[in-house]
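Protocol step 4 of 6: structure prediction from sequence.
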Amino acid sequence: MPERKQRGAFIVIEGLDRSGKSTQVSLLEKRCKDAGLPVRLVKFPDRTTPIGKLIDSYLRSDSEMDDHAIHLLFSANRWELAPSIIESLNAGTTVICDRYAFSGIAFSAAKNKPTMSYEWCRAPDIYLPAPDITLFLDVSPEKARERGGYGAERYENAEMQERVEHVFERIGVEIGDGSRWFAVDADREKEAVAEELWERVQPYVKGTEKPLQRLWEDLDERVRNSHLYI
């Protein structure tokens, strides 16, 4: 039988605002580079693409948009980068992703609109490349407040963040099978968090022979199609 080709690992870092996510992503990327591992950093939303520029304007409150439309644009932003992510993985490069589909679902479903159920918010991202491991940085409201005020962009307020966290918890239960989703205590010093993240990704950073999976690819076809329309 032909030998199975090694590919890069797909690692996603998720978290609420003030969880230290951006800092930890940078530290993990540097550690991979220092170890001589080929690595690529992807941040969502990618505000450099035509779709990303629309999202950027919305997040800065420079423009208004229907909640359904902006949700679909966030998903489209992930889909337009999906081919290059797959190409990097197949080339043996580890991809570290700062936010992914899970953030898109969490922030939209947290708006509590009747026409934006969890299932509706999930539907556009079905069959995107699935991470090999997702690390969710879990920060308490007390620690988030201690780290300073929220920024000026939409969604950066304590009430919204609390609702978003509840949706993340649901995603963790749905995705987590003991190996693909890990909640990490982000209340600790950044060095301690960084060490746990590095320990968690050790089985993956040197590559894997496992075929790349797709998000929610095992959902029944009727379930996948029943929530696509408002």
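Step 5 (inspection) to follow. Strands lie at 10-15, 39-43, 94-98, 133-138, 181-185.
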